[in-house]
Every structure is written in C-alpha cells, then in structure tokens.
Design goal:
The protein is α/β, with parallel strands linked by helices. It has a single domain, classed as TIM Barrel, CATH 3.20.20. The chain contains 7 helices and 10 strands.
C-alpha cells in the first residue's frame, strides 16, 4: 500500500476500537479498489448538495467537524445545523473532530506544549501554548457537541486544520483516543484553490488520473474564497472512479496497521 499523509501505525487496541479490519477493506468487495472520501467543514455553501450526491451514488464518506462560520450567518455546530448532521448520520457516514474552533497548529514549544492559533471562538487569531490535556479538551468539544446535536457518538479520529501537524501533536491526539487522518497527495481535490488558476475541469481530470487504491480524498463543505465551487464535480468524480472499479469506504474501515508516514 502506498504511503499516505497523516496516518501512522497504531496498536491493536485502537484498531479494534475503530472497528477496522487488519486485512482487506470491509466495505468493498473482492477485487475492488477502495477510496476514502472525506469532507471538512467550511462555509457550508455546498453541504446539502454534497449530501444529495453521496446519497444518489450510495457513497459513504467521513466528515471532520469544526464550528466554522457559514454562509447562513451562523456556525456549523449551531443548533440550526442539527437536522443536517442527523441526516448524514442516518445516511451511514462517519464523523471525526476537526477541533472545535478550527485550531491551527503552529509549532512545538518546549518539551510538552504546542503553539496553536484558533480561527474562531473567543481566542480567534491569538497564539496560545497548549499542553496535551488542553489540546485533548479542544478535540473533545466536538465530541460533546456532536452528541448534543445528533444523539450519536463521534468516531475516534481527527484531522488537524490545514493538515498541519507534528509528531508531538499527533501523539497528543492519540493519548486521548483519536487517530489522526490526513490525506493522500493525489487525494487533495484542490477545492480551496483559486478557480481562475485551477478550474474545475482541470481538478477533476487530475483527480481521475492520479487517485490510487487506498487513497484518502479530501474536500470541503464549502470554501469562501473559491469563485466556482468544486462540488458540482463530485458527481462525475464518483462516477468516473466507479467506472474504474473503485469502491468507497469510511475511515472506520481504514486498515490502520498498514505502513504509512506522518507528515
């Protein structure tokens, strides 16, 4: 299996906790090639469109949640979004934490801290130094809120905003029960890039040409800065990958004992 960004070898205990298989891919049939479609929160402008496309093609995906400002003037983990998250739960998707305030990692500090900068919340834009328990508390804020909104437990995995991590940060997440998932280089769909320089047709063809079996693919539920949303390309992307014999699984089925690298 090819190396993937942000995935590390873990012990059997967490593999069992995630419900994944050690050999093969439980959501895919024999001879099929698995792809792991994932979505991070964002402006939420494409959220319902994406849900409908996934439902149409019976694709199960993994969603990483943060409390981000939306095009509706609210935030993605406000009560107003409870029906959306409940619908995704009913559709059979998986859910991880993306840090509640979309907290960017900046650097390791001293022997046991990390410098971070939240994008939202009371400390938005401020640099802060956190210990492992403090970072864990931030991850768990999403777990608590997701249970309040949906009545469902969050899955034990997370993704750092921007994919920016260090070995220390990943270890902090693992210490409180969360496995970090980044994405494959070919799986970066580019929906946050400027559409003038990276038009949808270009990004779609690049993805179809380069995605490989076992790749984790990343996109967002809406990007403020992109003029032409990439979401309309999701349907031809899924259809094209299925024509090539790919199947789709959630990160619950990702084989964590596979050799992989940290970023």
């Amino acid at each position: 299996m090819r190396m993937r960004r942000g995935c590390s070898r873990l012990g059997l205990g967490l593999i069992c906790a995630l419900g994944v298989v050690q050999n093969g891919f439980s959501s895919c049939g024999v001879g099929q090639k698995p792809v792991y479609m994932t979505f991070d929160t964002g402006s939420q402008s494409q959220a319902e469109f994406i849900r409908q496309v996934l439902k149409k093609y019976d694709v199960k995906a993994s969603f990483f949640l943060a409390n981000e400002k939306t095009v509706n003037g609210d935030y993605s983990l406000d009560t107003t979004w409870a029906p959306y998250w409940k619908a995704l739960v009913a559709d059979g998707h998986a859910f991880g934490t993306h840090t509640f305030d979309h907290v960017y990692f900046k650097s390791d500090i001293g022997s046991n801290q990390v410098e971070v900068r939240p994008q939202f919340g009371h400390n938005a834009g401020k640099s802060m130094n956190w210990t492992g328990p403090e970072y864990c508390a931030e991850l768990n804020r999403v777990k608590t809120r997701f249970k309040e909104l949906t009545g469902t437990e969050l899955d034990p995995f997370w993704r750092a905003p921007g994919g920016k991590t260090s070995s220390r940060l990943i270890a902090m997440g693992e210490a409180c029960g969360y496995h970090h998932f980044g994405w494959a280089d070919a799986g970066f769909l580019g929906d946050e890039l400027p559409s003038e320089k990276y038009p949808n047709a270009m990004l779609l063809q690049r993805a179809l040409n380069h995605i490989q079996p076992g790749d984790i693919v990343v996109a967002h539920l809406g990007i403020w800065s992109r003029k032409d949303a990439f979401a309309p390309m999701l349907e031809p992307l899924i259809a094209g990958l299925k024509q090539k014999g790919y199947c789709f699984a959630t990160l619950r089925d990702y084989p964590l004992n596979a050799s992989a690298t940290k970023p």
